[in-house]
């Protein structure tokens, strides 16, 4: 398999979490497989989460950490995001990162009738942790967060996205975490 450029984003706002374990596990396994890897942890970033009232015509200047995330996404061939589901959505800090950094002109083009993605040709994998069982998430929540990530955020900018969900995260035993880690390592080795 050819070497790929991979950007791994740990989307959990705490410095110790299952998402961080997944992100670090993926990054190490990808490096071991010969891929070039860059990693960022939302918990270590300091930026204003609020998009504000400037709109697309006069957005706030990006803080250096957001500029680095955006540059890493542009550099990558494959993007990995590890995040929990909180209250049916993303943690506020990760959502703020997306709101602030995925702007027109670099990630999508608004000059036509419909916005066009500018980062096509890349793939993404999201590792989503939650306590909601998969069947409940599908039947009662209609996979809303998966749809948002796959189509309305990452897909909107051009990333062909797959999602792997791990449920029972809060009460996960060491055996569960080891099983999930083996799956993560398998995806990393193949840059998937």
As a percent range, the share of helical residues equals: 25-40%
Distance between the termini: 12 Å
Shape assignment: globular
Number of DSSP helical runs: 6
Low-confidence stretches: none
SSE arrangement, N to C: EHEHEHEEEHHEH
**Global mean pLDDT:** 94
Q: How much of the polypeptide forms β-strand, as a percent range?
A: 15-25%
Present the secondary structure layout.
Blueprint (H helix, E strand, L loop, with lengths): L4 E6 L7 H15 L3 E6 L22 H12 L2 E7 L7 H10 L6 E2 L6 E2 L5 E8 L3 H8 L2 H10 L6 E8 L6 H16 L3
Parallel strand pairs: 1-2, 1-3, 3-6, 6-7
Antiparallel strand pairs: 4-5
Please give a structural write-up.
- This protein has 192 residues and is of the alpha/beta class.
- The protein has six helices and seven strands; from the N terminus they run E-H-E-H-E-H-E-E-E-H-H-E-H.
- It has helices at 18-32, 64-75, 92-101, 134-141, 144-153, 174-189; strands at 5-10, 36-41, 78-84, 108-109, 116-117, 123-130, 160-167.
- Strand 1, helix 1 (18-32) and strand 2 (36-41) form a beta-alpha-beta unit.
- It starts with a strand and ends with a helix.
């Amino acid at each position: 398999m050819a070497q790929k450029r991979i950007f791994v984003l740990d989307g959990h706002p705490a410095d110790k979490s299952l998402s961080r374990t997944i992100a670090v596990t993926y990054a190490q396994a990808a490096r071991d497989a010969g891929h070039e890897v860059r990693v960022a942890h939302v918990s270590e970033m300091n930026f204003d989460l609020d998009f504000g009232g400037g709109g697309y015509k006069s957005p706030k200047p990006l803080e250096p950490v957001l500029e680095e995330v955006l540059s890493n996404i542009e550099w990558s061939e494959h993007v990995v995001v590890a995040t929990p589901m909180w209250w049916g959505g993303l943690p506020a800090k990760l959502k703020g990162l997306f709101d602030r950094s995925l702007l027109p002109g670099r990630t999508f083009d608004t000059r036509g009738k419909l916005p066009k993605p500018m980062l096509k040709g890349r793939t993404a994998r999201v590792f989503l942790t939650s306590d909601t069982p998969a069947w409940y998430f599908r039947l009662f929540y209609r996979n809303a967060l998966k749809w948002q990530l796959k189509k309305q955020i990452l897909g909107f900018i051009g990333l062909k996205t797959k999602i792997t969900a791990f449920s029972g995260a809060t009460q996960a035993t060491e055996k569960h975490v080891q099983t999930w880690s083996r799956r993560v390592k398998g995806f990393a080795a193949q840059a998937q």
